Amino acid sequence: MLLLNKQMIQNLYSMNDCLQDVEQAFRYGQVGETVAPIRLSVPHEKLGAETLYMPSYIEPEDYTAIKIVSIFPTNAKQGRKVLQGMIVLTDAQTGEHVAMMDASYLTVLRTGASSGVATKYLAKEDATVCAVLGCGAQSVGQIQAVMAVRELKHVILYNRTVEKAESMKQTLQELYPDWNGTITIEKDANDAVRQADIVICSTKSTTPIFNGRLVKKGTHINAIGSYQPHMQEVDVQTLYNSDKIVVDTLEGALHEAGDFLVPMKREQWNPTSIYGEIGEIITNKKNGRTSQDEITLYKSVGIAYLDTMVAATVYKKAIESGVGTTFTF
């Protein structure tokens, strides 16, 4: 078995690699060449924590994998990581478990790439202003992915605590030292949304973070933070105003996305308003953006076969480059 840590993976695998893999994985999913059961969540109630188990299989790639992620909020007080994850990759031709790798960087990358692919097909070609609502760890991958598919000139950062937005500004300046665009910080999410061609929602909020009436015509929204039934970043007005609502998978979105489930429970919104899955657009079964004035919304809660796809590519790159530590049971 090959062991790969975060630094090894960062040296091997880029956002552009991930965008290609994620788009291909969605193609596989659309034609029924993937298996991805709904993830299993095991709660640890006395600590307010949980562990998630996400298995999947991609038939054309001949790999299966399981990602295990633990989320322990109390770790922060002890100086430990709140979110810890790993991926175990299995050769589907032999059943051999060929690699174990850190999942933190890959999760940020593939979640970002999912939004990047959606942005490629749904955002205006001339979109230049991106508002980022929530500046936690996931937002870095979101911004990187959007930067890879659109020529941004202005990034607007909003976070409930301004310090995180300031830290993200510094991170972006270090990641893109030669970029000529501007980065500003807004103290009000609504003020950020008013200006944006692309909106990224990446928070753990349980109540909507902006007024959907302020979204201007032609805006594209990537909503990735509301991944549990009780969470809600996007208000029902945003759903009403969106000309196309696209999801990573219908099964996952209608099982986990609070942005949909909360208004459904209140009988304020009907899921028949969902236009389709991103895979349908990638495979030309349905159109992406068809006018400059459309408001488009991409809702993603994550799908495990994306993890299998990226892990398989990382493993193959590691073998080719002689990277990693070999461990024998």
From TrEMBL:
EC number, UniProt record: 4.3.1.12
Domain of life: Bacteria
Entries under InterPro entries matching the protein: NAD(P)-bd_dom_sf, ODC_Mu_crystall, ODC_N
Keyword line: Lyase
GO terms, molecular function: ornithine cyclodeaminase activity
Enzyme class: lyase
Span of the signal peptide: none
PANTHER family: KETIMINE REDUCTASE MU-CRYSTALLIN
Protein name: Ornithine cyclodeaminase
Native source species: Priestia iocasae
